[in-house]
Structure formats: C-alpha cells, structure tokens
Structure prediction request, 676 residues.
Amino acid sequence: MAMLQTLALTIVMFLETMFALIFVAPPAKAPPVDYGGAPYEAQTISEPMSLFENGASDYVLVYPTNAPESEISGVEWLRGFLAEMTGVTLPTVADGLIASADAGKYIFVGDTIFTPAALDADLAALPNEGFIKRVIGDDVFLAGQGRGTMYSCSSFLEEQLNCRWFTPELKVIPKSADVVIDKNLNDTQSSQLVYRDVFWQLASTNAEWKAFNKVNAGVGAGYSVPLGEKYGGGINYIDFAHSMERLVPVGHYGEHPEYFSWRADKSQWTLDQRCLSNPAVLEITIQNTLAQIAGAGQDYTIMSVTQNDNDNYCQCAGCAAKDAELGGPSGTNIWFVNQVADAVLAAFPDKEIYIDTFAYGYTTAAPTKIIPGVNTPRDNVIVRLCSISSCFCHPLAECGHNRDDSRFAKFDKIESIFGKHLKDWSALCTNNNLFIWDYTTNFKTYTMPFPNFQVFSPNIQFFLDNKVMGLFEQGNFDGGRSPEFGDMRSYVLAKLMWTPQANVEHMINDFMAHYYGEAAAPFVKAYLDFITRRTIDTSHLYIFNRPEQNTYFTTADLEKCDAWWDEAEKLAGSDWQLKNIQRSRLSLRHYKANMMKCEFSLWNPNRLAVNKQLFHDTIMLGINCVNEGEPIYEPYNDYVWWQRPIEWYDPVAWVLFVDESKVVRLDLNAYRAAHQ
Prediction:
C-alpha cells in the first residue's frame, strides 16, 4: 500500500511539473541576479580623526544626567564594542559631572547640556526615531528623537567602526589598537516606516538584537519579546490578528446565532465570522475592546479589531445592504471599525491608541464606493493590507500571478492586482496609517527552497512609494532554527526596513562570509544565485505550495548544487560554521526527498535509510517545525518512510491508512539528548 501511494504521488508530481519542464532551462547567458538596492559604496574617510591610537584614547563617553534607559543602552553598546575592539574601556560619565566641555575629548550620547545650539535645532526638526551623527571639533555627537539616540549608537558602530550584529550569537567586532573615523562626519537618518517588525524566530525572541538592528515592534504577549524600557519601549499590539474570535466569543452563539455570519450557501448562521450590521455585535466589540485596552500596559498601543481567518463573511440582509451601500465587505468593515475607534478615543482621550484592521481575503479590495467619514479610515484606524496570495519571487509592483492561477497561465503577463489594491488603499488612508502584512517563507514546507531575497528591496520601495507607514514581515516563527536562510532573512529584512536602498548583494555576501566562513561563502552564494535565477526565469513562488508546485530542478541541477555544498562543507572555518552550512543544506536535501530525486529516488534500494538519516539530521540541526503550526511526529513505522518528508513529518494529514492513535508528537529535547 505504501508503494502504491508513493507511485500515485509520483504521477501527481509528474503532471505538476510537465508545464515547468518545457521552460526549465534558463537562457544560455542568464544575467546575474539583481538582489536590489543602490550600488554599494564602501565607507571613505575624507579627513582622519583618531578615537584610539596605539591602544590608548583620550575620549570620554558622556550621557545626559536624566537619560532614558534606551540611551544608556546605546552608551553600553559603545563602551562594550569599543572595549572588545581595542582592549580599552572608555570612562563613562553623566554630563552634570563635567565642569566644562573644553577640558577633554568626548563622545556625547543624547541631548546633553553641551549640545551646540545649531545641533539642538537640527535635533528638534527630526521625526521620531530620527538621529544625527556629527563631529564638531574633536567631539562626536550621537543623538536623536526617542529611540533615535540608541539607534545612532548602533549605526555609529556599524557604519563608522565596521561592527556587525548578524544574529544574537554572531557579533563581528574588528580588533584594532587604532580606531579612526571621518572628522567630517555629518549624517542624519530616519525611517518612513514608523512600525518595523521581522516575525522570524531569531528576530522576535531577542529584544537586544531587535533594538540594535532597529526593529521597533512586537506582535504581542505570548508571541515575541517586547523591547521594554531598556530599548525604548517599542510598538506593541494588545491583540494582534483575527481578534473578532475573542472580541465576540463563540459562547454567544447558543442564545444569539444572529451575532455570527449568515451564509447563503449553507442557509444558516455559522461561527466563521461576525455579523457587523448587528448593533449588539458592535456594542460587545466596543466593550471588550475597551476592557483589553484598559488592562494593557503602556507599551501596548495598537488594538486589533480584525476578521477571522476565513472568507465566510456574513451575507445576511443587513450586511448585504451595508456592503451594497459602502462598496463591498471592506467598506462595511471600515464603517464598523471606525465606530470602535470613536469609542476608544472617547474613553481614552489622553492615551494614544490605534485600532488596527485588515485588508485581507474578502476585505483585500478597497471599497468601490467612497463615502468620506463613513467608510474611509479614521485618523486612529490602521489598515493592514496583506499580500498573502501574491507571487513572491517577482516584485509585487510587477507580477500579478497569485496562488489560485491556472497552471496554464504560469507564463502569461498579468498586471499586479496587489499593486492596484495598494494604490487604492493608499488613496483612502490619508491619515498615513497604512500598514503592510508581508510574507517571506513557504508555510506549507518551511524546509523547501524559497529564493526571495531579490524582491525585498523593490517591494519595500514600492510600499514606501505608496505611503505605507508600517511593515510586518512574517516568516517562520514556529520555533527552532531555519534550514532555509532564515537567519540571513531576519538580518537583511531588518536592515532594509530602516534603509530600503541598502545593497542586498553586499549584505548577503557580508553575512555569509561570517556565518559560513570566508572560504565557504562563495559556494553557498553560488547555490543561492542558481536557485534564485532558475526560480525567476521559470516559476512563481507562493507561500502555501506543496513541493511539486514551485521551482523545478533537474537531476543535473541538483548534482551541481550538491557539489557547491560539498565544497562549502570542506571549507567551513569552524565547527559552528560547519553546522550552519549543514543546516542550510537541509533545504536542498528536503527538496530532493520531496521530489524523490537523486539519493531519494524510488529506485534507490537504500531510500528508507536515506530518509531516516534526513529526519535525524533535521532534528539534530535544530529544526522544530517543518510546516506551519504542526509539530514533528514520532516516526510511525517503515510504511511512513516510503513517503516524502511532507508526508512523514505529518502522517495524520497526508498519509493514507495510518493509525492515528499511534501517531504521537516527538519529544525533540529527549530525542536530541539521546543522540548527542
């Protein structure tokens, strides 16, 4: 039976890939991948100024006497990184303890009593989080608005001193007895994105790494680590997504099914959504929203009033009339949320609270009829447009393919429907509170190749061109490590959200040289370039595709890729870098296993042993989850090992004739402890 199911899967895979095979070979002279961003320019020094010379320094770190905790964090970064660079720890003092700034050389952090009037005026003109790095005479001034002073410190370390903090465990601090900067340093920075979040496990679970890399947001309690006062507080949600499930709980259904969604296709009230035209639903939503806000800490400033995660919106007579009047379900949703926002403003006039709602699924398209003040967002309403159905290997502004397209349309030129939605919502959100929920991984198979670095920069530029003020980049948050460049994605995305024009190719090369080793990195980069170019030329990339539905690689392609990984493993600079290489290589191994190619072929008599080894290596290299929201299960029996990883990681969902009572969640910690 196992062989029959596997043969059936093979037929499905054959049919799925027939269309790709026609176009599988890229042009003979395929252009190099353009990963986006402006051309990289190395730092230059027009006039040298020494901070340290022969391991000695005359400089003192100075901060305001009443400095907030985030500014002290910036001072600590400067002191710690410089000490590790030079072996010398600079003295640190509050400004009130210095009689005169003429008596020495200083690095002033924050708006101290010694800030010159001209610089004070420039600081006052900055937006929140903006900062200035400036040399005046022999002194260095690092200051900004809000978290901006803290950011000026990390920016100075990165851009003037060539330090990096790639991952929580990977800091790069060059060692030198001499530290020289440009005496003409005068740099002002800010971000158009007031909300920046990277929802990968790495980025969401280390507050200091987030703060250093200018990620300023958190999903909310239970999901990611808030920055806390030490790092400036950040921007945090009180409830994050699909909150109508909690705002109008299912417990009301017994007595009031009319609070829920009427579905004409079922001729009944369902629990899927809520009836927004029912006044009682509005009142319950308001009361529960106010209660959540009242119970939240001061760091939580955005409340989610968002639809559930399905498209079964209410079709009762009241909602149908509202949809017709207000230009569709999105118009009805904005009308409803506006009333919640009005109640919040009345109840908390002195507290800056925003109400967040979705443009997602059935509310993705902006209202087709505009009634100002009725179905246009209030000033305290955030609209979060989601890119969920889009192609993610071509820029969102250009590619209109989506996951529901016919396979026959794969190579058609289709205008970007997401681009139209973005422009329509941008025209409506005149309060500048338009956010984007974007996606950066394949949730069906986290471990499969998903080459999308080339779209990060153009997509973010497109968002900014259309007045987007907040960006949430969703990745793999289900725990453990990522085998598919997840650490590098977290770093690159964090950098681009602050500096969208940053050169992505340079960031990738810089990251790889330290994460994999300088000698190994070119081979990993060759692999990434190859799979990226092949995907751009022959495929579209969707976030819920099964393995056979995305990019297709021939056996010759895979052998070429394996050769690059073989060389990378040989040239790893340390055991830690070797583990990183082996973990990242899992993605290629999972592709081969899911497509039953090379050593995972049906014709390999050792195929079961090879599958078991892949399972073992995946666990031992730190992977905790292979597809969204699903645990990894105990190996069921040899029947399961005939299948592909997508089946044997989750046999209950995908394997026929499996005894569910015998399928149990794998204790990952116990497994790893037993196989150390």
User: Anything to note?
Assistant: Residues 240-298+305-375 form one domain.
